[in-house]
Amino acid sequence: MNAIKVGLLGIGTVGSGTFHVLQRNQAEIRGRAGRGIEVSMVCRRDVAAARAVVGDAAVVTADPYAIINNPEIDIVVETIGGCGLARELVLAAIAQGKHVVTANKALLAVHGTEIFEAARAKGVMVAFEAAVAGGIPIIKALREGLTANRIEWIAGIINGTTNFILSEMKAKGLDFDVVLKEAQRLGYAEADPTFDIEGVDAAHKLTLMSAIAFGVPVQFDKAYVEGITQLQAADIRYAEQLGYRIKLLGHTRRRENGIELRVHPTLVPANRLIANVEGAMNAVLVQGDAVGTTLYYGKGAGAEPTASAVVADLVDITRLATADPDHRVPHLAFQPDAISNTPILPMEDVISGYYLRMRVADEAGVLSRITTILAEHDISIDGMLQRESADGEKQTDLIILTHETVEGRMNKALAQMQGLPTVLAPIVRIRKEDLA
Ligand SMILES: NC(=O)c1ccc[n+]([C@@H]2O[C@H](COP(=O)([O-])OP(=O)(O)OC[C@H]3O[C@@H](n4cnc5c(N)ncnc54)[C@H](O)[C@@H]3O)[C@@H](O)[C@H]2O)c1
Ligand SMILES: N[C@@H](CCO)C(=O)O
Ligand code: NA
């Protein structure tokens, strides 16, 4: 059979990686897919740069529509990024009856409902393994490997840049700003790292996993997103003393009244495997009622790790291209008529443990006033640490760990504690998960 023909929209890091992996492993890929997969056209505004990557092996163009409107192209790979042009091009490719592979989590987390509906109506596939945790086959695991399960929760380190920063802050005792500069110098963080450090990139990925796990639409606008920019070296140190690591965790969980969907710095017990994921690596924990807890670990970014996922999607599409659309794996794991409207819970209704750090006056009665407020809100204390104050010092750091409680209740208790004259600075609050 003739090779299936692929057009690459954008040939930067991921696009180049995809081209090289397809070239290098073509024999294996043909053996698995049943036919060859060939990049026949690539698009990049800088045509000479694209030519430098593909040589004479593919036609190079600066016009994306030269690919989208080419009847010989079967699959379009979108690795341009962003939500504007990429959305337009993906919808245009679908309208032309082409299957789409994309690494673009921002696009799907925000416009997924529109894009998946357009693909369903046209009977084409939109595959996005590369969009979540790069080379780790987590979409495959959730959509196919775990279909027997009622998924209970997912917790993941799904942004390499921030995990690198947190690892360095812990190892070297440095503050956030210092390590960010280092991450940029090493090329881990982008020149504009906002989406990474503010938690947005992780929330895009979590939104996609949550939709697939629980059979709900992609709803990035309902996600709670908090990054690591406010995190202080002192909290990483205190957490360590209490037996915890702080990770930027994406967490989605089924509750009786809805689904939690949240990204924020989180204390995780230091003896959990996921707490020991260091540097730019990614890891995702999935809890299913039948399988128990499973853990997926690997590279969430980089040219070839991400290309590994793009090419796997190309193989899947090649295998299924001639199948009746109803016999393919549904985009969001559940059939479109089985997608539910279970609500995403507001943060006030989320249940979590907490780490609280307060700067307090070092005098009699302070601790008892604080514990009284917690008791009045039915919040149970799990552990405590008081920094030894140096001779003559009149204030100290008090750190309290609590058992699980509802966030709204914690907010009320925090407001009261903050109002105490003996609490001398804004209270630091970090959520805590046992992930058991
Ligand atoms: N880099 C990674 O490790 C990684 C991992 C997972 C997912 N992703 C996602 O993959 C996508 C691409 O990321 P990347 O790191 O390869 O980006 P990149 O900046 O290296 O590549 C983007 C490419 O698109 C081209 N491009 C931009 N606008 C264009 C236009 N109007 N017409 C033609 N070409 C245009 C650029 O010239 C460049 O070649 C993004 O959605 C990103 O979030 C990246
Ligand atoms: N900026 C992302 C790249 C992969 O999506 C990260 O740091 O993980
Ligand atoms: Na993946």
Automatic annotation (TrEMBL):
It is an enzyme of class 1 (oxidoreductase). Pathway: Amino-acid biosynthesis; L-threonine biosynthesis; L-threonine from L-aspartate: step 3/5; Amino-acid biosynthesis; L-methionine biosynthesis via de novo pathway; L-homoserine from L-aspartate: step 3/3. It comes from the Bacteria. L-homoserine binds at E190. One of its GO terms (molecular function) is NADP binding. Keywords: Amino-acid biosynthesis, Methionine biosynthesis, NADP, Oxidoreductase, Threonine biosynthesis. The active site is at K205. NADPH binds at K105. Residues 355-431 form the ACT domain. Its EC number is 1.1.1.3. NADP(+) binds at L9, G10, I11, G12, T13, V14, G15, S16. GO terms for biological process: methionine biosynthetic process; threonine biosynthetic process. InterPro entries: ACT-like_dom_sf (IPR045865), ACT_dom (IPR002912), Asp/hSer_DH_NAD-bd (IPR005106), HDH (IPR016204), HDH_cat (IPR001342), HDH_CS (IPR019811), NAD(P)-bd_dom_sf (IPR036291). Belongs to the homoserine dehydrogenase family. This is Homoserine dehydrogenase.
